[in-house]
Design brief:
- The chain is α/β, with parallel strands linked by helices.
- The protein folds into 2 domains: about 130 residues, Rossmann fold (3-Layer(aba) Sandwich); about 50 residues, thrh gene product, domain 2 (Alpha-Beta Complex).
- Helix content is about 40%, strand content about 20%.
- It contains 9 helices and 7 strands.
- A hairpin with a 5-residue loop joins β3 and β4.
- It is globular.
- The two termini are about 15 Å apart.
- Bound molecules: magnesium ion.
């Protein structure tokens, strides 16, 4: 049985922290793993900034509600979900993703979560597992699922390479050049066609 494992940010929705930084008017929140490669330290720093601005989860979700999926993302996802199983595998947090999942028709999402105090303050972030994208793909394969993966970033390469078919979508020139064997697409219709075509391929043998 096939299951399509999709990255979220950059593929279906904008980069959430970049969009949040613009919508909230807090420019320092646009800092990414390119500026702070240690993701835990970056998240602790982001949560500190949010607390300093008095932003609890409810206020953050209000800002995220103003962010829309990328144009065409909902139609692409609907078309895909009519034809095969889909799960979104993301490094974001379920509480942040929730307003965007509503706009995408509530697809299945596997990501991380937040510990939130009764007053709405975000206490800390809770990562689900190590190397979550690759670990999740391997776990799905361990129970007989054949994975097809697509994403835009470095952290998607492991799940793409571990799958029976994998695609780059709206990736950077650097990543495309470093991975010339991976088909790379810019348009949803091309990604949809490639995924649907890959369904009949044989499973990867571990
Ligand atoms: Mg991404």
């Amino acid at each position: 049985m096939n299951i399509v494992c999709l990255d979220l940010e950059g593929v279906l929705v904008p980069e959430i922290w970049v969009a949040f930084s613009e919508e909230s008017g807090i420019p320092e929140l646009a800092r990414t793993t390119r500026d702070e490669p240690d993701y835990d330290r970056l998240m602790e720093w982001r949560l500190k900034i949010l607390r300093e601005h008095g932003l609890g989860l409810a206020q953050i979700q209000e800002v995220i509600e103003r962010i829309d999926p990328l144009p065409g993302a909902r139609a692409f996802l609907d078309a895909l979900r009519e034809r095969t199983q889909v799960v979104i595998i993301s490094d974001t947090f379920e509480e942040f993703a929730r307003p965007l999942m509503a706009k995408l028709g509530w697809p299945a999402l596997m990501c991380n979560s937040l510990e939130v105090a009764p007053d709405g303050t975000i206490v800390r972030h809770l990562m689900r597992c190590e190397s979550s994208k690759l670990t999740t793909v391997r776990a799905l394969q361990s129970c007989g699922m054949e994975t097809i993966a697509a994403g835009d970033s470095f952290n998607d390469l492991a799940m793409i390479r571990a799958s029976k078919a994998g695609f780059l979508f709206r990736s950077t020139p650097e990543i495309r050049e470093a991975n010339p064997d991976l088909p790379a697409y810019e348009r949803y219709e091309d990604l949809l066609a490639a995924i649907l075509d890959a369904r009949g391929k044989g499973a990867v043998t571990a």
